[in-house]
Each structure stands twice: as structure tokens, then as C-alpha cells.
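hey
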């Protein structure tokens, strides 16, 4: 079989029957697109997340269950309730009911992940039915058979070698016979318990499956026509990028460009698989190709913003001319599975920003009381929240004269809490208050991309 293409469709792309039908046409237009990876229909994961929250009133719980069911039934209705699919959806919906009820008694992370996984189970069953309705031979496949992860519920780590092995055993042979539709975002650990990869994880799933299957390309179909110079919702003058390198795209994803989950590029880099990002609403507009090598590597490529940042300020006189303070701090953070993002130090202070502090799949905070107490034993801890990290992404940023001037001239009216520059040739980041972030992004975009 020739190298396959993996196509991933995000939540808005599979929001309803009409959207699914448009996406099915995109799949059918390319005979190499053998594997389709879908997110839950738009809004469903948010509703499921609300079902996992503590102290949920029963009335609200019933309302959420109804809203989830209504999204699925609207699609089923357009499909004419094919027997096997209608029965499958009913089964999944009643599973959601049972799991949400058991969470009211026991807020167990494994049950939360099992619950969150049902959104993708529904959309994949429905999408396969839409393909069949168009005369194509297609089946839904439970990705938990192949997407092996560790047992870190809510933010599980994929086990790359096992995924490759399981894919060649269980998935590759099916792809030779028909198109397969599977779920993004979810996996299973060695015991078979359902896990999730963190919010927005379907992009990552698609790239992992493409890597395991040695696909020729991964297509990320979403609601914008590619990767833009900044979030087009924030800056109307943002323009689409035709071609971008793995490095630049990885930096953009890491620094908050939601269009790609931060880990998406890793598997693509490992197998040198090209990634395409395009709009399922307007595929004719083209999109962005992410490649190993590109012809143009401009100094300024994009501006990204990552919200919900936490700044940890650690103060200790022990730091002065002493050794081991940072090692001890990092060891503590590592024990609590916190990954440090940016860091600046002075004689008696160290400031750290924490990566994705606010989030696992169910929105549980990772910054626990236990961690703060442990840190407080050897230093004074101050936590600042409601911050946003704005990153200028490009090439040779650290070694090009004039970059700082063009960045700082627009930052003048703003209170910058932290600056990181120099460690990477690809970015310069500033931490500002969340409420100023949009303004800062627009001002930077204007100065770096729109000025004549
Ligand atoms: P999906 O549900 O398809 O995964 P997402 O909402 O996760 O879609 O990602 C698409 C969104 O990413 C866009 O609607 C856009 O607002 C946002 N976005 C942020 N930064 C960028 C960027 N640089 N280029 C394009 N889109 C961006
Ligand atoms: N459905 C999941 C979410 O909303 C995964 C995804 O869409 O990528 O986060
Ligand atoms: Mg997404």
C-alpha cells in the first residue's frame, strides 16, 4: 500500500451533520486518506468536563446529559437513524449517564477520563456513518486498542514504541481494506483503563498515529485556513502562512497558538512527516504546510499568546553564594510533575513560569497545596496568577540587531512582569497581565508585520 495520509477534524469541523458531510467530502477527494481522526463534536468535551466537576447539582447534571444527547441526535436524525449507529449512540449516552452518576460518589480520575472519552466515541461512530451514507466502505475503530499511554489520567504520556507495534498489528491491516475513522484525544494504559492526552489532544493523536503508520502526511482540518501570523480572532490583519518549518511551528504551538496542540510536531519531526493545516469550511482556500525545510525563514514569523500563566516567585537568602537551591527546587517541582517553563534568577530570587498550570483534561489545577507547602519549607513563595505569555516567534531572534527595540517600543505603556530572550534563536517572550494580552499582541503584530 502507498504511504497513507491521516486527516484530523477538530470539534467545529464535526459539530453537526452538515459539517461532517463537508469533511467526508474532503476525505473522499483523496484516495490516500485512509485514516480519519476526529475530535468530539464542538462543545461536547466542555459539557463532559462540566459533568466531572465537584458538587454538581443533579438538575444541572440532567441538563448537561440532555444537551450532549441532543447534539448526537441531531446528527443521527439527518442520517435517518441507521440501526447499528443509533444503538451505538444510545449505548454511549447511557454510559455517560452512568459514569457521571458514579463521579458524584467518587471523583476518581480514571472515571473522569473514561467519561471525557465518550465525546470522541460518539463523533467517530457518526462520522463513519456519514462516510458510509456517501457509499464508502468505512468503520469506526476504537483507538484504545493502539494508543497505549502511561496511567497519568488527564494528561497521559503516549508510549511511542508500543503504539507503533500495536498499530501495525491491529490498525494497518484494516486500512488496506477500508477507510477507518478513529478517536483523537483518548488512549488506554497497560491495564486497559481509558486515559486522555489533555485538552486539544486530538492533533497530537493524529500525529502519533501518522508516525506509527509511517504516513506521508497529516492533515489538521480546523476552522481557519491554516496557521496565521497571529490568532486571526485577536488581530483581524493576521495573514495566513503558506509554509513554515517544524521548528517555528513547534514554537508557535508551545507558546499557545491553539491551532496546534503543543506536542503535535514531535512525532512529525521524528518521522519527517509533513503536516498540513487547513479549513474544513473552505478547503479551497488552501492552508499551511509545515515541513522539515522551507525556502523562507524570516526574522519575524508570528506572535503567539498563552493565557492562564502562573508566576512562582521564590525568595531565599540561602541562595546567596550557595549551591543546590535551584537543584532542590527543581527536584520538588519534578516530584509534583510540574514542568517549568521560563526562568529568571537574581541573587536571592528565582522566578519561574509554570507550563499549563491550570490544566489537565478535566481542568484540575496542577499547582497543589502539597507542592506549595513543600516549597515553603526552604523559601518564601509568592504566586501570581492571571498572567499571559506573549511570544514573538521567528528565526535568529537572539542574534539580530534591532529586534529588542522594535519589541520594546510597543511595550512601553504595559507592565511587563518577566522577559526571556536569548536562550532560543526562535523566540522572545514577555509576561504581561492577562487583561493586557490582547492589546500587546495586536500592538506587536502591527509593529512587526503590518508596518510598511
Ligand atoms: P479545532 O477544534 O479544529 O482543534 P481549535 O479551536 O483548537 O480548533 O484551533 C483553531 C483556532 O486556533 C482558531 O479558530 C484560532 O482562533 C486559533 N489560533 C490561535 N493562534 C492561531 C494562529 N496563529 N493561526 C491560526 N489559528 C490560530
Ligand atoms: N475533544 C478534546 C477537547 O475538546 C480534544 C480535541 O478537540 O482535540 O479538548
Ligand atoms: Mg484544537
Amino acid at each position: 500500500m502507498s504511504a497513507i495520509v491521516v486527516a484530523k477534524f477538530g470539534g467545529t469541523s464535526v459539530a453537526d451533520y452538515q459539517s461532517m458531510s463537508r469533511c467526508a467530502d474532503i476525505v473522499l477527494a483523496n484516495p490516500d486518506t485512509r485514516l480519519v481522526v476526529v475530535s468530539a463534536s464542538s462543545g461536547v468535551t466542555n459539557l463532559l468536563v462540566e459533568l466531572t466537576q465537584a458538587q454538581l447539582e443533579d438538575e444541572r447534571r440532567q441538563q448537561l446529559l440532555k444537551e450532549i444527547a441532543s447534539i448526537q441526535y441531531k446528527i443521527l436524525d439527518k442520517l435517518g437513524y441507521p440501526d447499528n449507529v443509533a444503538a451505538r449512540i444510545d449505548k454511549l449516552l447511557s454510559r455517560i449517564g452512568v459514569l457521571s452518576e458514579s463521579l458524584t460518589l467518587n471523583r476518581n480520575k480514571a472515571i473522569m477520563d473514561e467519561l471525557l472519552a465518550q465525546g470522541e466515541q460518539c463523533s467517530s461512530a457518526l462520522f463513519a456513518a456519514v462516510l458510509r451514507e456517501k457509499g464508502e466502505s468505512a468503520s469506526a475503530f476504537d483507538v484504545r486498542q493502539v494508543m497505549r499511554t502511561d496511567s497519568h489520567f488527564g494528561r497521559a504520556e503516549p508510549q511511542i514504541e508500543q503504539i507503533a507495534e500495536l498499530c501495525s498489528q491491529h490498525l494497518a491491516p484494516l486500512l488496506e481494506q477500508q477507510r477507518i475513522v478513529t478517536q483523537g484525544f483518548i488512549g488506554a494504559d497497560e491495564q486497559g483503563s481509558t486515559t486522555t492526552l489533555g485538552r486539544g489532544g486530538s492533533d497530537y493523536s493524529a500525529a502519533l498515529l501518522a508516525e506509527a503508520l509511517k504516513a506521508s502526511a497529516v492533515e489538521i482540518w480546523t476552522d481557519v485556513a491554516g496557521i496565521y501570523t497571529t490568532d486571526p480572532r485577536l488581530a483581524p490583519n493576521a495573514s495566513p502562512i503558506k509554509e513554515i518549518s517544524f521548528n517555528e511551528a513547534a514554537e508557535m504551538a508551545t507558546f499557545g497558538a491553539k491551532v496546534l496542540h503543543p506536542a503535535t510536531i514531535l512525532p512529525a519531526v521524528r518521522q519527517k512527516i509533513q503536516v498540513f493545516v487547513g479549513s474544513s469550511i473552505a478547503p479551497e482556500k488552501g492552508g499551511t504546510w509545515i515541513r522539515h525545510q522551507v525556502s523562507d525563514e524570516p526574522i519575524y514569523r508570528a506572535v503567539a499568546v498563552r493565557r492562564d500563566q502562573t508566576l512562582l516567585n521564590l525568595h531565599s537568602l540561602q541562595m546567596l553564594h550557595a549551591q543546590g537551591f535551584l537543584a532542590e527546587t527543581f527536584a520538588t517541582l519534578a516530584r509534583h510533575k510540574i514542568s517549568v517553563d521560563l526562568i529568571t534568577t537574581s541573587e536571592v530570587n528565582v522566578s519561574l513560569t509554570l507550563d499549563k498550570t491550570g490544566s489537565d483534561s478535566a481542568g484540575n489545577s496542577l499547582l497543589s497545596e502539597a507542592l506549595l507547602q513543600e516549597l515553603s519549607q526552604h523559601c518564601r513563595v509568592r504566586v501570581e496568577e492571571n498572567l499571559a505569555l506573549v511570544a514573538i516567534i521567528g528565526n535568529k531572534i537572539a542574534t539580530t540587531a534591532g529586534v529588542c527595540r522594535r519589541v520594546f517600543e510597543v511595550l512601553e505603556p504595559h507592565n511587563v512582569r518577566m522577559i526571556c530572550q536569548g536562550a532560543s534563536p526562535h523566540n522572545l517572550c514577555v509576561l504581561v497581565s492577562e487583561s493586557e494580552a490582547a492589546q500587546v499582541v495586536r500592538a506587536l503584530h502591527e509593529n512587526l508585520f503590518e508596518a510598511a
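Residues 10, 200, 203 surround magnesium ion (ligand 3) (CB under 6 Å). The domain at 5-223 is CATH 3.40.1160.10 (Carbamate kinase).
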